[in-house]
Amino acid sequence: MHSSDTTRALWQIHFCVLLWGFTAILGKLITLPALPLVWWRMLLVAVALALLPKVWRGLATMSVRTRLAYTGIGALVALHWLTFYGAIKLSNASVAATCMAFATPMTALLEPLLTRQRFRLGDFALGLASLPGIWLVVGGVPAGMHTGILVGVISAFFVALFGSLNKRMVDGSDPLTVTALELGAGALTLTLLAPAIPLLAPSFGDTLLVLPEGMDILWLLVLALACTLLPYALYLVALRHLSAFTAQLSVNLEPIYAIFLAALLFQEQQDLHVRFYIGVAIILIVVFAQGLLASRRKPAHAELAGISEAHQIAE
């Protein structure tokens, strides 16, 4: 793996993070409950990709075992998005997005177990070093938002889990094919779980089939295509040259973008004080320190070093 590949992958990840920063904002703008919101998001992406012959060719060349593995990962993605948007509805966009950075230390623990690489104490220490920044950014929140924080942390766990599994699965598969399979499986998972979700988490929505109306239609299309399809596939490409931990640590920038956007659009400015800027500085230092170390590190997975250049997003 060349350093130029790592550098390009880091830029790709940061572009993905910028787009993902808008997902919390769109989750706030869309009036649908979390369950139908996520279902429509995954379904729209899967349908859009199903129109591409390239996706079907990719599925035809994929083994049954690989398809099942990506299907399972897609179910975890669905649970992550469901809890993420549930956290937004229970707190606000700023708090829910910031909770995602808890995935960093979780990934440092899970990735060595799931990808069979050695545990890196330095990665775990860097993940922990970002936590004070996260807490400073969140600051004090009203008691009514505590449930949202808990749901956000659960969502962060799902991020760490499916991110590490994607790293283990990453290979020569076409990114758009993988995206279609995972998000299609996620939509199916939510369809199967829909009867139980109102009983387990009533705040997520009591029904699946809610037709979007008015501006919700536009915001859902933006969420599905510009903030899901493009960055999700690009993220899979970048993972071929980065560890899941490095990618997740870069995703810590997502709450920074989301909080600034939320302050601008929704006046969620309660955290934009001195503690906020100190927290931002801590997160930025940790993110770029890890990026610098990753660019100088030997590949963690020898079997990935010989993989040819990733497929392009579009041909």
How would you describe what is shown here?
- The protein is mainly alpha-helical.
- The chain has one domain (3-296).
- It has helices at residues 3-29, 34-50, 53-61, 64-90, 93-99, 103-115, 121-129, 131-138, 146-169, 175-193, 197-200, 215-238, 244-250, 254-266, 274-296, 302-305.
- It is globular.
List the uncertain runs: 298-315
Cα end-to-end separation: 24 Å
Morphology: globular
Report the portion of residues in β strands: under 5%
Number of helices: 16
Structural class: mainly alpha
Please state the average pLDDT score. 81
| Number of DSSP E strands | 0
**Sheet having the most strands:** none
What is the chain-wise order of helices and strands?
HHHHHHHHHHHHHHHH
The overall number of domains is: 1
Helix-strand layout with pairing:
Layout: H1 3-29, H2 34-50, H3 53-61, H4 64-90, H5 93-99, H6 103-115, H7 121-129, H8 131-138, H9 146-169, H10 175-193, H11 197-200, H12 215-238, H13 244-250, H14 254-266, H15 274-296, H16 302-305
Distinctive features:
globular, 315 residues, mainly alpha, single chain
What would a concise description of this structure say?
With 315 residues, the chain is mainly α. It contains 16 helices and no strands. Helix 2 packs across helix 12.
